């Protein structure tokens, strides 16, 4: 049954069921089957009262099929399709209030139950099922048969009268239950149950019947005609209505809620209001669909929500009872479609839809053999068997789901680095910082900042790990104290978005359960395969942080945060705002850089709050402890001479002048000094370096130390020297940190050899030992890296001195690896094969993703990579791995076969921007050739901003606006998404269509699915630029003639996108260029409503100052205040109320006010704010519920008391 129509959905007939059906099928049950004497009701009652209910060996015990119908027409249809109908039941539990009809279909004895009149929904269905199992204990299979609301979309042409069968999909058991009672348009859906699968015998029969229908067609139309001929009194209400009454309105066409007239009169039959659909042939008049049914407590009457769930969950149908059965009465749900789950309810199709569902159910039972049913356990036994493990399984599932969501936020994990730093820390070092007055005051006082700058190599990172460890130990077990930490790394690119998502992940992990704000963020994006924008992450943090009395944020290496794109400044601004708004306690380290240190100056209110500073210098005693703990690595001449040990500790501690890194390098330098004199000479050298003028350059001291270390590397035997230089070259120039196994494989590759020789693998300990202490292994992550970022800087600046063209060597090794004969078969066809490939070839992922970058940097000649690019299967195989990582944050194997790329030689060369390879490939390839995803080379070049490649391709005849394959982007859009200004200018200069937009009004009925799965594809370049918040590109496009009010698939203009993102400068720019400040999308939503919806208070204020009506309404009479309340934007609600917003505005869909929305979302602060501003506690929604009755219904006791006090 479709959610919520209740009594008004019941078809009325003049006679009762008995008169309609007649006596044609009524007869007594075969008495020979009753092996026990009949018992009177009093006898049954007496036995039940005694606690020993009578176990019938006949009659009730002979019924193995339970069929539940919710409303009258469903029950009529069920009975009409019984082959025989019997009297009974002869026994019924005293607590069983159900009404039963007993009968037979083929060889199956069937008991049909109907919900009590006027009752419907999950709870009623569950009670009916529970009663049935008490009275009929041998029920083995269950059916929930009736009517439902369809969810037609691009993949499923669902029409009235069609049948939907619940079969498992996407991890669901055919039915999932979501808390729709709290769901409104624009809000997130909350799944509350993952329900049991139907019995195996039914699922097998569904598959068999599906095959039978495919071969011979289905007999449902004939079967219905036969039943109606047998019961002519049913023909008026249960025959197929006029096909002309099957109208699917576009999502934005709404039936007036107070108008009871038919849609044909109220909503118009104008084709422009309807979704165009081709006429079906007679034989396909009824189509069977298999998949997911969504079940809820309340009626769904919203096309937008229908489309959203159809897209995100692939839902085919909505109803209200199956979720009440699946956990307690595992059954198959079968639904005939009577409407489209929107405001255009279609009661005239209910009878026929009930008939189509019942006809299918009968066909299904006729296919199930009695012995199959006999083999099934009784449902009550099944439930008993699994109940003990249910909670544990659910807990495990929830834990995995929560971890999956956290990993979706970011896979960057600083914990292994933290553990490795602590492991390498000399015990008891760093205590001076923990004992300092400034540190202890920072611990005790909230909303304070402790800034610890220091010179390079002073031990800032190690001390940061000490601070993190101290906080974790001090507040262990206190879930109300949250600790998050960040380690910036010199060669590890992280955007502000990445870092804030990591903070969100760490803070969410602190709580015992996954915070709702994180779950909602995931739900918002997972179906669309998009990532949270900075505004969303910021708002989530601002919601989450206040849930803790104290939040500590520890940041190491601010100076190593990348500068490109303003990342460092933006990050500091975000941290300052978080502290100001949420009261975080911040600890940070950095080198002495003016643009960083000024942010910790208390003189400005725009800086960190309550900032105190402690300079990090390697404490002399700490250095001595470190040296003492590592004396064992020196020669025996030192081990046997305590006086020499003391001199080494004293003089190195003096020479390093506060740089812990120097102490390590100097100690490593002494490892090959075998006499006391050699050691003393080295110590003299160390001290001479540190005794220069007062202004000596510490960086030069480090450079000299690194020079010495590299000279030691070069002084080794040829084999060790060559291996060391390879290790150092790879660790310096690799585009990310390599694991030890990746590095071993990379070094073992023999250029141009077709096979990998495992006998060429070097031992990892040897790889470390030959490098004179310059590399280290993080044992938690097994990543190998240089000992310090200053060494990274040194080697990058001097690489020509030490390495022979490392980029070229790395490119050749990667290409050789990808060209191994093991990959001749091309792409893997299943997850298991790919897993095995990656397990056997651990360097494959790095090589596939980075060979082209190294080749471009080295300007590699085409002939060196020609073989690989000409081997289409090997090239395509590499793109499979490359695209998996590019498309997926979670474990990459999950997307195999979905959105993976299939790139060939020319496309790979264009993607990586390798000039020589593009020229070489163009000799035998069309510049407009399509890869496996239908994309051309210019598309890949534009995506990555390779201007020179775009020029080459255009010169060779490439189309500048190739027709993009479905769900992909034009080259211009890709350049806009990537913020590649030069590429955008080049494309526009060569005629790229600036208004490229594949969306049209004719495709409006499918825009929802398309947009959420592939955002931006139906937006103009200007709308995309506004979405990605690039003011420069917005200005460029406007200067080139882009239409300022172009609309996307939602009907959103660029102004709406800028309002959504909260980018005030772009909003101002668009308005200056003439953007319509009151433009409406297809739902009637204006930029002001979008800004309110997304909680961008500054944009709301700006638009109001420009004269926009604070009480303007969209197509559903929803105001900006309504939208802000719906999304719990408290600050925006406060602003709107101050500007005169009507506090009790109601929407046309459900009649909900801002206060009702706040109550449904259990937002106490918003409820309080609205009550303070005069919100009414007595206004009712369309279901007659007040804010108080809703709060009582949901059990929100605090809000109940708030409302009662106000009343």
TrEMBL record:
Residues 23-51 have a biased composition (Basic and acidic residues). Coiled coil: none annotated. ANK repeats lie at residues 933-965, 967-999, 1017-1049, 1050-1082, 1083-1115, 1116-1148, 1150-1182. Keywords: ANK repeat, Repeat. Residues 428-591 form the Nephrocystin 3-like N-terminal domain. InterPro entries: Ankyrin_rpt, Ankyrin_rpt-contain_sf, GPIID_WHD, NLR-like, NPHP3-like_N, Nucleoside_phosphorylase_sf, P-loop_NTPase. Gene3D superfamilies: Ankyrin repeat-containing domain (1.25.40.20), Nucleoside phosphorylase domain (3.40.50.1580), P-loop containing nucleotide triphosphate hydrolases (3.40.50.300). One of its GO terms (molecular function) is catalytic activity. SUPFAM superfamilies: Ankyrin repeat, P-loop containing nucleoside triphosphate hydrolases, Purine and uridine phosphorylases. GO terms for biological process: nucleoside metabolic process. Residues 719-798 form the GPI inositol-deacylase winged helix domain. Residues 1-52 are annotated as: Disordered. This is Ankyrin repeat-containing domain protein. It comes from Metarhizium humberi. The lineage of its organism: Eukaryota, Fungi, Dikarya, Ascomycota, Pezizomycotina.
């Amino acid at each position: 049954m479709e959610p919520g129509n209740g009594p008004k959905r019941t078809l009325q007939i003049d006679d009762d069921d008995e008169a309609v059906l007649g006596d044609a099928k009524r007869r007594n049950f075969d008495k020979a089957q009753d092996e026990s004497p009949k018992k009177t009701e009093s006898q049954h009652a007496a036995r039940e009262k005694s606690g020993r209910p009578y176990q019938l060996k006949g009659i009730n015990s002979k019924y193995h099929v339970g069929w539940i119908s919710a409303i009258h027409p469903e029950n009529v249809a069920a009975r009409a399709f019984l082959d025989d109908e019997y009297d009974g039941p002869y026994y019924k539990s005293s607590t069983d209030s159900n009404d039963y009809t007993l009968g037979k279909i083929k060889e199956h004895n069937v008991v049909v139950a109907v919900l009590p009149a006027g009752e419907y929904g999950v709870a009623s269905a569950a009670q009916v099922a529970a009663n049935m199992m008490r009275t009929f204990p041998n029920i083995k299979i269950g059916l929930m048969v009736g009517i439902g609301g369809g969810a037609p979309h691009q993949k499923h042409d669902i029409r009235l009268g069609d049948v939907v069968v619940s079969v498992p999909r996407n991890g669901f058991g055919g039915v999932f239950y979501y808390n729709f009672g709290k769901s409104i348009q624009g809000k997130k859906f909350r799944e509350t149950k993952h329900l049991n699968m139907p019995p195996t015998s039914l699922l097998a029969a569904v598959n068999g019947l599906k095959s039978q229908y495919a071969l011979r067609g289905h007999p449902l139309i004939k079967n219905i005609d036969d039943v109606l001929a047998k019961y002519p009194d049913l023909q008026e209400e249960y025959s197929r209505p006029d096909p002309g009454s099957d109208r699917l309105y576009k999502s934005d066409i709404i039936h007036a809620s107070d108008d009871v007239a038919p849609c044909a009169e109220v909503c118009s039959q104008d084709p422009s209001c309807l979704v165009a659909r081709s006429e079906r042939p007679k034989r396909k008049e009824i189509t069977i669909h298999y998949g997911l049914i969504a079940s809820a407590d309340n009626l769904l009457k919203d096309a937008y929500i229908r489309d959203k769930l159809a897209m995100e969950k692939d839902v085919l149908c909505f109803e209200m009872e199956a979720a009440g059965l699946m956990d307690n009465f595992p059954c198959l749900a079968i639904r005939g479609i009577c409407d489209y789950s929107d405001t255009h309810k279609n009661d005239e199709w209910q009878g026929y839809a009930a008939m189509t569902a019942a006809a299918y159910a009968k066909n299904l039972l006729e296919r199930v053999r009695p012995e199959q049913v006999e083999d099934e356990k009784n449902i009550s036994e099944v439930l008993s068997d699994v109940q003990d493990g249910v909670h544990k399984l659910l807990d495990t599932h929830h834990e995995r789901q929560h971890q999956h969501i956290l990993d979706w936020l970011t896979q960057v994990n600083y914990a292994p680095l933290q553990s490795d730093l602590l492991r390498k820390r000399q015990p008891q070092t760093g205590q001076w910082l923990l004992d300092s007055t400034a540190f202890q005051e920072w611990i005790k006082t909230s909303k304070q900042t402790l800034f610890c700058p220091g010179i390079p190599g002073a031990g800032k990172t190690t001390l940061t790990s000490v601070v993190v460890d101290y906080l974790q130990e001090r507040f262990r077990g206190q879930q109300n104290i949250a600790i998050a930490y960040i380690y910036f790394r010199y060669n590890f690119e992280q955007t502000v978005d990445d870092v804030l998502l990591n903070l969100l992940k760490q803070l969410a992990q602190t709580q015992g359960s996954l915070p709702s704000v994180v779950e909602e963020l995931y739900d918002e994006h997972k179906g669309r395969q998009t990532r949270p924008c900075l505004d969303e992450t910021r708002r989530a943090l601002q919601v989450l942080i206040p849930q803790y009395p104290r939040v500590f944020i520890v940041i190491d290496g601010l100076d190593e945060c990348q500068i490109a794109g303003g990342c460092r400044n933006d990050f500091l601004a975000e941290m300052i705002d978080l502290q100001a708004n949420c009261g975080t306690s911040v600890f940070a380290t950095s080198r002495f850089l003016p643009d960083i240190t000024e942010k910790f100056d208390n003189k400005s209110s725009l800086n960190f709050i309550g900032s105190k500073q402690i300079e990090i210098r390697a404490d002399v005693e700490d250095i001595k402890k470190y040296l003492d703990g590592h004396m064992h690595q020196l020669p025996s001449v030192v081990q046997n001479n305590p006086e020499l040990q003391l001199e080494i500790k004293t003089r190195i501690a003096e020479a390093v002048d506060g740089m812990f890194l120097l102490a390590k390098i100097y100690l490593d330098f002494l490892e090959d000094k075998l006499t006391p004199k050699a050691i003393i000479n080295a110590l003299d050298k160390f001290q001479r370096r540190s005794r220069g003028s007062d202004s000596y350059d510490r960086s030069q001291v480090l450079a000299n130390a690194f020079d010495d270390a590299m000279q030691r590397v070069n002084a080794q035997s040829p084999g060790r020297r060559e291996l060391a230089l390879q290790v150092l070259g790879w660790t310096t120039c690799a585009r990310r940190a390599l694991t030890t196994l990746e590095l071993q494989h990379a070094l073992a590759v023999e250029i141009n050899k077709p096979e990998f020789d495992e006998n060429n693998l070097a031992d990892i300990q040897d790889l470390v030992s030959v490098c004179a202490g310059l590399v280290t292994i993080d044992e938690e992550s097994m990543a190998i890296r240089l000992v310090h970022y200053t060494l990274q800087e040194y080697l990058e600046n001097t690489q020509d001195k030490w390495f022979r063209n490392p980029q070229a060597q790395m490119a050749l090794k990667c290409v050789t690896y990808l060209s191994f004969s093991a990959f001749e078969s091309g792409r893997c066809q299943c997850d298991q094969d790919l897993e095995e490939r990656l397990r056997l070839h651990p360097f494959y992922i790095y090589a596939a993703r980075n060979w082209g970058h190294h080749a471009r940097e080295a300007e590699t000649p085409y002939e060196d990579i020609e073989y690989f690019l000409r081997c289409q299967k090997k090239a395509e195989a590499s793109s499979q791995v490359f695209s998996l990582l590019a498309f997926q944050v979670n474990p990459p194997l999950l997307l195999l076969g979905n959105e993976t790329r299939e790139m060939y030689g020319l496309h790979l060369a264009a993607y990586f921007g390798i000039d020589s390879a593009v020229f070489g490939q163009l000799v035998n390839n069309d510049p407009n050739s399509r890869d496996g995803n239908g994309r051309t080379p210019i598309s890949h070049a534009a995506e990555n901003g390779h201007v020179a490649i775009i020029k080459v391709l255009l010169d060779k005849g490439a189309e500048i606006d190739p027709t993009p394959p479905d769900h992909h982007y034009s080259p211009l859009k890709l350049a806009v998404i990537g913020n590649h200004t030069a590429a955008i200018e080049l494309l526009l200069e060569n005629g790229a269509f600036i208004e490229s937009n594949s969306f049209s009004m004719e495709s409006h009925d499918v825009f929802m699915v398309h947009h959420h799965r592939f955002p931006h594809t139906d937006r103009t370049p200007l709308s995309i630029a506004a979405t990605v918040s690039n003011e420069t590109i917005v200005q460029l496009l406007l200067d080139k003639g882009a239409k300022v009010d172009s609309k996307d698939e939602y009907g959103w203009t660029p102004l709406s996108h800028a309002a959504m993102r909260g980018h005030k400068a772009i909003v101002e720019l668009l308005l200056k260029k003439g953007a319509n400040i009151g433009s409406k999308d297809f739902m009637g939503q204006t930029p002001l409503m979008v800004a309110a919806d997304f909680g961008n208070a500054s944009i709301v204020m700006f638009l109001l100052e420009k004269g926009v009506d604070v009480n303007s309404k969209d197509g559903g009479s929803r105001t900006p205040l309504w939208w802000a309340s719906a999304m719990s934007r408290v600050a925006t609600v406060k602003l709107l109320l101050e500007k005169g917003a009507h506090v009790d505005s109601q929407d046309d869909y459900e009649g909900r006010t801002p206060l009702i929305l706040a109550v449904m979302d259990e937002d106490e602060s918003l409820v309080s704010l609205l009550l303070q501003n005069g919100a009414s506690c007595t206004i009712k929604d369309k279901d007659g519920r007040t804010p108080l009755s809703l709060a009582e219904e949901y059990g929100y006791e605090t809000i109940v008391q708030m409302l009662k006090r106000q009343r």
